Amino acid sequence: MRINQRIGGRSRYATAIALVAAAALTLTGCARDTGGGGGAQAGECERVAPPSVPAASAQPAPEAPKADASRLKVGLAYDIGGRGDASFNDAAAAGLDRAVAELGLQKANTREATAQAGESEDAGTNRLRQLAQGGFNPIVAVGFNYATGVKTVATEFPNIQFAIVDDDTVDLPNVKPLVFAEEQGSFLVGAAAALKTSTCKVGFIGGVDNPLIQKFDAGYEQGAKAVAPQIDVESAYISPAGDFTGFNDATRATEIASGQYDGGADIAFAAAGQSNQGVFAAAQTAQKKAIGVDSDQYNSPQLTQVRDTIMTSMIKRVDVAVYDYVNAVAGNTVAQLPARFDLANNGVGYSTSGGQVDDIVPQLEAYKAAIIAGQIQVKSTK
Question: Which residue stretches does the UniProt record annotate as biased composition, category Low complexity (predicted)?
Fold first, then answer.
């Protein structure tokens, strides 16, 4: 069974959940931890079957009609790394590209600008101001680091519409927050890790120890323990709160991931922006597995040499949010956008590229259905 995970599109897959759950038998226990790092002992990591949910109660929301965006001028302000980061920014770029392909948005009427490492907060504000002065409307700011800039520039230009990804602190009538239920998608890849581990120990590596990345951590652990209550989940962060270098420090990511693999983990979920590349390198060296984030990282051209280590990715569909926002501005339906992009509206999910999780898709779809139906409530904190 394979699911359509095309970037930019909405899944048309109708989950026959009752049949899936009925076919999902209680699974056998994990093997004894052979990595010497404190994994569960034999018999302590038995996997349990997912809940059964009627298919009719777990259907994703339908896609909005396509509007004509040919008259829009769209500005996109990326976070550090920009287009080509194989992660967060590339997902936003995919949403813009889809708007060009499907909504009549003219490529010549788009402009992209990228934050630089170590720049001041004023630099981000000036970047947004330049886009506004250039007549771009709407303007999408990719990342919570733009919060101050969006508030400042949206106040200066009240007739221009703004959106900001990963922040909901700016309360202005011309600003739309594009936020996600990262914990829900992370729950699913945590379940995947628990279904695939042979050591009963898995790892999590976050870029920065802040509330946003903690949502990935919390959801991942909940998903893993929903499948295998005794599983050992080791979490680490590359940089502390307020220090955003953790999103661009592949060397440190490699060190942390290598330590987790040496300690017995055989799968690690990396939610660390460009630093994910360091986790993938460590997985390749250790001959272990990793889980990507934001985009379907198995298919990222920059990651071809390590893609076989990428078991799945927690897809945070920034592409869907950006596309939907442009479509809503074009159709004057911004007020109808969801308050949060989650499993029910295809805002988060998991990838199947490479076929490494094909055998567990029925279980993952059953957990997905239970979350959509409200039978499983995924918390955003531990």
Answer: 48-61
Place of tokens 């490494």: 356
User: What letter represents residue 80's amino acid?
Assistant: I
Q: Which two tokens stand for residue 258?
A: 């290598």
For tokens 């002065």, what's the residue?
A: 133
Give whole-number Cα distances, 161 to 100, 108, 138, 174, 250, in Å: 19, 19, 5, 5, 36
* CB-CB contact of 235 with 253 (8 Å): no
* Calpha distance 138→159 (Å, rounded): 10
The C-alpha atoms of residue 317 and residue 348 are separated, in whole angstroms, by 5
pLDDT string in tens for the chain (382-residue length): 333 333 333 333 343 343 343 334 334 444 333 333 444 443 368 999 999 887 766 777 788 899 999 999 999 999 988 998 877 899 899 999 999 999 999 999 999 999 988 888 899 999 999 999 999 999 999 999 999 999 999 999 999 999 999 999 999 999 999 999 999 999 999 999 999 999 999 999 999 999 999 999 999 999 999 999 999 999 999 999 989 899 999 999 999 999 999 999 999 999 998 899 999 999 999 999 999 998 899 999 989 999 999 999 999 999 999 999 999 999 999 999 999 999 999 899 999 999 999 999 999 999 999 999 999 999 999 9
pTM of the model: 0.83
| Per CATH, domain 63-180+318-349 is 3.40.50.2300 | yes
Task: Work out the burial of residue 128: count CB atoms within 10 Å of its CB; fewer than 13 is exposed, 13-18 middle, 19 or more buried.
Answer: buried
Residue 217 has a CB neighbour count (10 Å cut-off) of: 26
CATH class of 17-58+182-316+352-372: alpha beta
Which of 9, 3, 2 lies closest to 320, judged by CA?
9
Say yes or no: do domains 17-58+182-316+352-372 and 63-180+318-349 share a fold: yes
Residue 371: both structure tokens together: 């979350």
Supply angle C-alpha 213, 358, 256, rounded to 5: 35
Phi-psi region of 223 (alpha: psi -120 to 50; beta: other; left: phi over 0): alpha
